[in-house]
Amino acid sequence: MRRVAIIGTGQTKHTKSHNDLNQAELVHQATTRALVDAKISFRDVDAIILSNMELFEGRALPEMWVGEGAGGYLKPVMKIATGGTSGTSACIAGCHQCASGLFDIVLVVGWEKHSEGATQTGMALTDPLWDRNIASGAVGNFALSISQYMAERGVTPEQAAKVAVKARRNAAKNPYAHLQMPDITVDQVLSSRMLANPVHLLDMCPQSDGACALVYAAEDRAESLCARPAWVRATVTRHDQPYIGDLDRRLLTMRTLRDAAREAYQQVGITDPLRQIDVAEIYEPVSYAELAWYEALGLCAEGAAARLIDDGSTEMDGVLPVNPSGGVLSTNPVGASGVIRVAEAAMQVMDRAGAHQVENVRTALATGYGVYAWSDVIILSIDK
Amino acid sequence: MKAPPISILGVGRTDYEPKPGTTIPELVYRAVQAALTDAGLTMRNIGARVTASVDLWDGLTASNVMITEVVGAVMQPESRVAGDGLLAACHGAMSILSGTYQTVLIVAHCKSTMGDRWGITNWTFDPIYQQPLGLDDYYAAALQVSALRSSAPLFACPPADGAAAIILSSIPAPITIRGMGWALDEHYLGDRDLTDSPALRQAARRAYNLAGIIDPKHDFTFVELSDHFDYQRALWASILGLDGFPNLNLSGGLARGVPSFVAGLDCLIEIVLRLREKTGIGLAHGCWGPAGQGQVVMVVGQ
Amino acid sequence: MTEQLRISHTMNMEWRYGTSWYFAKFIRALRDKRRILGLRCPVCRRVYLPPRPVCGNCYAEMREWVEVKDTGTVRAATVVHVPIIDPVTGQPRPAPYGMALIQLDGADTTLNYYLAENDPTKLRIGMRVRAVWREQRTGTLSDIVYFKEVSS
Fold it and tell me: Which CATH architecture group holds B6-114+159-169?
């Protein structure tokens, strides 16, 4: 099996409303930056994977219009769309296409321009025969799951707020992040508008306009093009049942993430993730989710997640910094969010994360989350 | 193509009659069961799935969520290509070549009768110049017919509902994938030479190179092209070097009623079924987008 | 100063969804008899709502219908304060509204639906609720107005 590495990444600044660029231009900007970072030209790209939740912008087959922005003319272009996991799905697909031997250089670009669409309408298109008339968006769904999580684990709104604070303070050092709040406090989170008990406005991810691209190269090309590539060591995907009511204690159990992480760790030989992983970019749509998923990812014993945030273990100077980029809590163009996780993890391994670089990163974890409980887990490393 | 050769272990599909009373999960389940039975496998043998469908056609956000259970993807890997099923087959083949999976299930579904099948395509056009003109795939086809100076009437294939599935594997079997290629053409109709399809040329070039096809008219035994509109059959054939090819669209082509996004995969199934009767090399083709902006070609052999 | 030009597009789409045998039976039982039917998996014996052709955990076809009660236990609950667009009316729902994941007696899945109560201090995981039905039924979950607390 051919080894594959990420040799470059690029992002646009993520904002509430990118009034300066249309969707194709957004993709073009991220692509150009990734190509420059990878030190290649668009002619070197052999295949392209695009990631986007086009229904949110009310579009169909968006690669038709936007594909050219990624340099797709006469290239093998494929669009992957799996809800929130679109970005990580696309990254996994790009890795497989590169490892297949058919392509030496594969470009993956994810984007979303929520300001051009009606995301809520898109999200309301759930099963018309069952739960469409109750559909209460992402925040409603998470509030339900969080109520179970709190009842079972006793986590407090303060502890969740600490996650929200960590994210936005980290984001302040990330020039691309949407929400940058260097002075945010737990009190501010707790006094922000209540969206759905117990989720406050500042507990929740934003909707952003933005794009993110990364470049894969196969073995020899990666080594000749890049002094410190981020090698892909594991890619695992797990999907789950279609209705929120099917998933027993969804946030807490998160069996897809548990199993995907278990499989990925086994493939790489990780037995103590908290210590053996140097940085993690977790797809966390709401503050409480990050806590619940510390447990699902095996970073701590069951029930001990709150301790990790309380004692600073996942802060930038902790034993395992989580989301130095600011995470989805700070930046969320849905089609790009998964790509951003992988790109940021790669930047950490490649020592290109600038002001939010963690020291001595050898192994990085990236996760994707989508729909009700789909999970992707990707592990990158400085070692082949 | 590179080792290991990718075999097609089984194929299955529903009929394509309009089925307003049937759910998509039920259609997909029937196609999956048919493919598993044909291959002599159970869902336990399947390592991963690649499905093909488009939200706006299904009237559901992240629409593959409703088929997760029937494709056996609960606590399993699944990926979804928003495009033609033949493209999903290409991706599935690559995931096997990457060494990640041994056996992959490919499923495409569409109920063209569910919604406004032309109106939906207005939303594929860029929102700035072309969409406001009210363009859709039907108009794009009319423009292409006019560019070709063809006097033939514009005949679109009838709307259809159904699902098709194939099972790919690195386990040896008689019919294998020899080559594949896909490409995207320009988007703005005014930029394109509608009498030609550079995307199809490029896709075919890649597929023919990998498969060692030198003389298409003589190398191929069977060819199935996705003629969403009647005029497309001659156009695609000509670009593929198949003018006058005798065994072209023996199935009757899409005029017999094949759902969008299932079409390319159905072409592949037709080829596989014929190759089981007669050894040879076959070509399956799919396309999507305005006047075939996206093109995919797969060469298989017995 | 640059002027921003806006081009507006409005999507008007209609889709006709099928029900197949399983949703058809569910809808008829709800509309005609006020009965809520789920399907039981022959392997794990779980009763699923809504009904569907296959148990995703066992990949087994389900054909055994089981009636579940219109009373149940709240497994998760929240009060939504933001104006979410109601897909049925196209208008923002009056807020705040209570909603929950309710495990109906006899079912192994939970149902996401409205609660009568919208005071978060009065919601408890584990509380018992009963459906309040509309006079006229159409065979969809909208036939239930909301779930109201009952003392067990």
Answer: 3-Layer(aba) Sandwich (3.40)
